[in-house]
Design goal:
By secondary structure, the chain is of the alpha/beta class. The chain has 15 helices and 10 strands. It has a 7-stranded mixed beta sheet, sandwiched between helices. Strands 1-3-2 form a 3-stranded antiparallel beta sheet. The model has no long low-confidence stretch (mean pLDDT about 95). The chain binds S-adenosylmethionine (SAM).
Length: about 375
């Protein structure tokens, strides 16, 4: 028997609209993608006083039909609006062309770097794969990854093989979210100690390593990652000014390989890394990292930079992070997510680390944890 709808709910019309935005979310998303790629939103943004449909056709090369169906949906979706006529006669006249203009939401789609990084990450990396979210959730594997290649088990070893648009969107998204926090985190680290040897675990393309080495001209670094990433480090053009101070250590943390790095290592660093693993996997990685730290003679610190999903200042950040967790589910590995604060702190404890300090709200949404072995 169907569950009865509860009566006397307040704001039923607003809620009905919200529910339709969800029911038709892919339609709205695709309409925005077309309005961006055709230049429709940009044309409107350049003319704050408004544009007629005819002018939009000229600007975008879209047909009258295409302009009409896009505008008709983007208006109730809150992306464009009809211009209010002041002149009553004008407003009644069927001769006067209807004018359209963009809303502040359209401006964000066009100009806001975070919105754009998220939008194209959704479009070019996740869109097709998300159709397999159900299977991913029930089977505990990234079933959506088959949109790229049915033989791939996780996305990480295949990042360099992604199609051009997906690779650009993946790195654009990753870099957008970590870059802003890097500068702030480097400032915090500089206050803590004069670090001489960085171990960048999950160092990927060496982007953080590069910034660290530029800021610390006497220091060295070891980039730790899957072989496909570490092998590319020496030839990366953007690292050439520091490459003679970088070593690499290739590891697949999902095997039982141990970490071995220079005895001079005094800063172990993990940025947007632990979230690529399940809780138990993260504990295992931290335990092996702790063993490598203890082998160093320099009393090292472990710095973990993570966005904590339930400790965000803004609803937009919380929604972005929670949505990205489903990328981990359907595309990346099937078993990880951005952590809630209590889970992450518990993982540190289980691995035998004590938290020395926490600095929240770095960049847009990251917290920097400084940890030391508790035993
Ligand atoms: C989300 S990226 C983070 C990159 C960078 N640290 C940042 O702040 O943007 C995660 C990194 O972890 C690495 N990684 C994922 N799974 C791994 C594994 N099983 N063993 C070693 N590294 C792995 C990936 O290759 C990638 O470079």
């Amino acid at each position: 028997m169907p569950t009865p709808v509860r009566k006397n709910r307040p704001r039923i019309l607003e809620n009905l609209l919200e529910a339709q935005k969800i029911a038709f979310a892919p339609f709205i998303f695709e309409a925005c993608a077309s309005a961006l790629s055709s230049g429709l939103i940009e044309a409107l943004a350049r003319k704050p006083e408004g544009l007629s449909e005819e002018a939009l056709r000229t600007e975008t090369k879209l047909s009258p039909y295409a302009v009409r169906v896009l505008l008709d949906l983007l208006a109730p979706a809150g992306v464009v609006e009809r211009v209010e006529r002041n002149d009553e006669a004008d407003a009644r006249s069927s001769e006067a062309p209807l004018l359209w203009r963009s809303t502040p939401v359209a401006d964000l789609l066009l100009f806001d770097d975070m919105t754009r990084a998220n939008f194209f990450f959704t479009k070019d990396v996740n869109y097709e794969a998300l159709a397999k979210l159900d299977a991913s959730l029930t089977e505990g594997r990234p079933a959506g990854l088959s949109a790229f290649d049915p033989s791939w088990k996780t996305i990480y070893p295949h990042l360099p093989e992604l199609p051009e648009a997906a690779r650009k969107a993946w790195f654009g998204f990753d870099h957008f979210h970590s870059d802003r926090a890097y500068e702030a985190a480097l400032g915090v680290l500089a206050l803590a100690r004069d670090f001489k040897h960085l171990v960048d675990i999950g160092g990927n393309t060496g982007r953080f390593t590069h910034r660290f080495l530029i800021k610390n001209p006497q220091a060295r670094a070891t980039v730790v990652d899957l072989p496909v990433q570490t092998e590319a480090i020496p030839t990366r053009e953007e690292l050439q000014d520091v490459v003679d101070r970088i070593d690499t250590f290739a590891i697949d943390w999902l095997t039982d390989t141990e970490l071995h790095v220079s005895p001079d290592a005094d800063l172990f660093w993990m940025s947007q890394f632990l979230d690529c693993f399940s809780e138990d996997e993260a504990v295992s990685i931290l335990v092996r990292t702790k063993a490598a730290m203890k082998a160093s003679g320099k009393n090292p610190v472990l710095a973990v930079l993570e966005p904590v999903v339930d400790e965000q200042r803004h609803a937009a950040a919380e929604l972005s992070l929670a949505a990205t967790s489903l990328y981990f589910t359907a595309v990346a590995n099937g078993n990880s997510a951005f952590f809630r604060g209590n889970m992450l702190r518990n993982i540190f404890k289980r691995a035998g680390f004590a938290i020395r300090s926490e600095v929240p709200n770095l960049g847009i949404s990251h917290t920097l944890f400084l940890l030391e072995p508790a035993d």
